[in-house]
Design goal:
Largest sheet: 8 strands, mixed
Structural class: alpha+beta
Shape: elongated
Helix content: 40-55%
CATH architecture of the largest domain: Orthogonal Bundle
Strand order of the largest sheet: 1-10-9-2-3-6-5-4
Radius of gyration: 25 Å
CATH class of the largest domain: Mainly Alpha
């Protein structure tokens, strides 16, 4: 078998590593962070093996600018900490060393081996899922613990070569994403890999290899076993990177979106055309703002993702005699409580979403001095933008949205004064925190 040609399933027994010398690949030290080079060289000079690995190598080969740089070494976390005063050890499930250089963090991981080689309980699985992963090994062991072939390329600081065990270079050339190992087993080890497959395919504009793609729909329910906070981290990576519309479409195609937002999926499955239009508009708005380097907040997407479940439940409460404001508050509480049992959302974002929903009711009152007071509200601009989003998606609020657009233009001075006051409050709050 030709070891240079990737196969559908990458297993340890089918391939020996290729060593690609510096003259035959495009990774240059000039494209690697100075701080990452410091870590690599200090490990090397201390007698350890050190490699740049993962997205840093992959992105340079693709002509992209890496967001971060990871290092793999045979030094144990405690040994890394001895070499770097600016090092912190983190994690229990995966013990890692973070070397801090101001805002830049170089993540250093120790080569890991199979759980079959574990001693003293350092490797542990439950129902095929990795619960603890501190089984140390060699480079030959470590590569088989990586997730995708394109993330398993090792840049050797000793001779500037690239070590490729799994056909990662060929997959980069073919622009395809393949799991290392048997896909179903790897997804069961860590179901979040299904979300990562979607995210990398979108980010890199790769296709997912059919064999790696095939088990995803069947195994989607495994995401229910993942801690809600970890799913929120994946939500941010998927939806706040500038390609949220593609992420939404891919997640729905593979049956994963329902595990992140089950209430929203229920309305989508009913064939509710408005909710689909609302979400597409929200995602496109977010992607456009990110492309223009404008500020965005997950709270806005959260408000859009859960608006129809909130509105529907609020209508039921109104039918039972509650006021419109009480109904929206009660519905917000119930929908948020249900949501955080699937994907956790920090309170600062859920509170902002609640305010935006409540203000949709208050924006209806355009008599007297109330509109002027609303202009000075801290959440007014977010609520107004959300009102425009509802109108764009076809909800019957276009006339109200037009009224508020004209009213703002007439009273721009009030908004500017309110904005300055909010900035002063934030500044005073920050001062208090650091006293």
């Amino acid at each position: 078998m030709d070891s240079s040609k990737p196969t559908a399933v990458v297993t340890k027994i089918v391939r020996k590593p290729q060593i690609i010398p510096r003259t035959e690949h495009g990774v240059s030290r000039s494209e690697i962070s100075e701080n990452a080079l410091k870590v690599l060289y200090r490990l090397k000079n201390a007698g350890y093996h050190a490699y740049l690995v993962g997205g840093g190598v992959r992105d340079i080969l693709l002509g992209l600018k890496p967001k971060d740089f990871d290092v793999a070494t045979d030094a144990h976390p405690e040994q890394v900490r001895e070499l770097f005063r600016n090092c912190r050890l983190i994690g229990r499930r995966f013990r890692l060393a973070h070397v801090h250089f101001g805002r830049e963090i170089i993540e250093v991981s120790t080569f890991r081996a199979s759980h079959n080689d574990a001693v003293d309980g350092e490797g542990h699985e439950e129902d095929g899922r990795i619960i603890r992963d501190n089984v140390y090994g060699t480079l030959d062991d470590d590569v088989w613990r990586r997730d995708f072939t394109v993330n398993a390329l090792y840049y050797n600081i000793e001779d500037y070569s690239i070590v490729d065990y799994v056909g990662g270079l060929e997959d980069i050339k073919n622009r395809q994403l393949r799991l290392i190992g048997i896909p179903e087993d790897r997804y069961r080890e860590d179901p979040v890999r299904m979300l990562r497959a979607i995210r990398f395919a979108i980010k890199l504009d790769f296709s997912i290899h059919p064999v790696s793609e095939q088990p995803i729909r069947k195994l989607a329910p495994l995401l229910e076993e993942i801690p809600e906070a970890r799913l929120f981290e994946e939500f941010l990576k998927l939806f706040m990177s500038g390609q949220s519309e593609k992420a939404y479409q891919q997640l729905r195609e593979y049956g994963l979106f329902a595990k992140l937002f089950p209430q929203t999926e229920e309305f989508l499955n009913r064939g509710d055309e408005f909710i689909h239009k609302l979400l597409i508009s929200a995602f496109r708005n977010t992607d456009t703002r990110l492309a223009e380097d404008k500020p965005v907040t997950p709270a806005f997407l959260l408000a859009a993702l859960l608006w129809v479940p909130v509105r529907d439940l609020a209508n039921d409460h109104e039918g039972n005699g509650l006021s419109e404001m009480d109904a929206i508050h009660l519905a917000s509480d119930a929908v948020i409580s249900h949501q955080i049992s699937s994907t956790s959302m920090p309170r600062r974002f859920t509170h902002m979403a609640r305010d935006m929903w409540a203000l949709q009711v208050r924006l209806k009152n355009i008599r007297g001095k109330r509109p002027l007071k609303l202009l000075a509200h801290q959440r007014f601009r977010a609520a107004y933008d959300f009102l425009l989003l509802r109108a764009e998606a076809g909800e019957d609020v276009q006339e109200l949205a037009s009224w508020w657009t004209a009213f703002q233009e007439e009273h721009m001075d009030i908004q500017l004064a309110a904005k300055k006051e909010h900035q002063k409050k934030r500044f005073r709050h920050r001062q208090k925190r650091f006293r």
